[in-house]
Design a protein that fits this description.
Radius of gyration: 22 Å
Strand content: under 5%
Structural class: mainly alpha
Order of helices and strands: EEHHHHHHHHHHHH
CATH superfamily of the largest domain: MetI-like
Oligomer: single chain
Helix content: over 70%
CATH class of the largest domain: Mainly Alpha
Strand order of the largest sheet: 1-2
Number of domains: 2
Largest sheet: 2 strands, antiparallel
Number of strands: 2
Number of helices: 12
């Protein structure tokens, strides 16, 4: 990013917003927005509390299980839709509907099916994450050059070898892109699910902080969640950069 001809780091914009937040908080213009420095102090105190540590374990466990299920189901389903036209015709409409639907409205239904507990959070993460993984995997498989498939067959590749050693690796850039977007949506799923259930994980903490107007802790927990989403997105993006050369092999 350049400003008045000078190169400015991207983090500079974040620092500007932090300064604005601090000023607005110090002027006490908005009751629900404490100074940013108070939020940072609250974050340091928050991570030392046993309640936060227990909520983090619950949240990360539900997120990890939901994402693992979404990846385990989404990638094979996307490959199937990319390779089998009948499967694509049967499932494509439903995948597109769920990928664009307001999934927050389905969480109460999940609460009825799975109860007010961790299973509902896992199901919410799964539903939020899987559809973009399926669509991106399907797109990656569709972009594989037919000559690459024919070459593998001419060398006597079996069907399992064709899928595991050729198709999966050739579609890997799009698969990783889908996983990265799915992880971000999975964070939304775990937050929305816990906010609606409000008795487990971070949802219980958000409920406690908002009900008692402990806004510094509320915003500290929000920043921790944003940092978590940014971290996992950055890790997957780095993995994408390392496998970009696979895309050239499909042409």
């Amino acid at each position: 990013m350049t400003l008045f001809g000078y190169r400015v780091p991207m983090m500079a914009s974040l620092l500007v917003w932090c300064v604005v937040w601090e000023i607005v908080g110090r002027l006490d213009l908005i009751f629900l927005l404490p100074p940013f420095s108070d939020v940072l102090v609250a974050a340091v105190d928050l991570v030392q509390l046993p309640s936060w540590q227990s909520a983090t374990i619950t949240t990360v466990r539900a997120f990890a299980i939901g994402m693992a299920l979404a990846i385990a189901v989404g990638i094979p389903l996307g490959i199937l839709m990319g390779r089998v036209r009948i499967a694509d015709n049967l499932l494509g409409m439903w995948v597109n509907i769920f990928s664009s639907a307001p999934l927050s409205a389905i969480v109460p239904v999940l609460m009825i099916l799975f109860g007010f507990g961790e299973k509902t959070i896992v199901a919410a993460v799964f539903l939020f994450a899987i559809w973009i993984i399926v669509l991106d995997t399907r797109a990656g498989v569709r972009h594989i050059s037919p000559s690459l498939i024919e070459m593998a067959r001419s060398y006597g590749a079996s069907r399992p070898a064709l899928y595991t050693k050729i198709i999966l690796w050739a579609a890997l850039p799009e698969i990783l892109a889908g996983i990265r977007l799915g992880l971000i949506r999975g964070v939304k799923g775990v937050v929305i699910g816990q906010l609606l259930v409000a008795i487990v994980g971070y949802g219980a903490l958000f409920e406690t902080f908002s009900r008692n107007f402990r806004m510094a802790e509320f915003w500290a927990l929000t920043i921790i969640l944003f940092a978590f989403a940014l971290l996992i997105s950055e890790l997957i993006e780095r993995a994408e950069a390392k496998v970009e050369y696979y895309a050239g092999a499909r042409q």
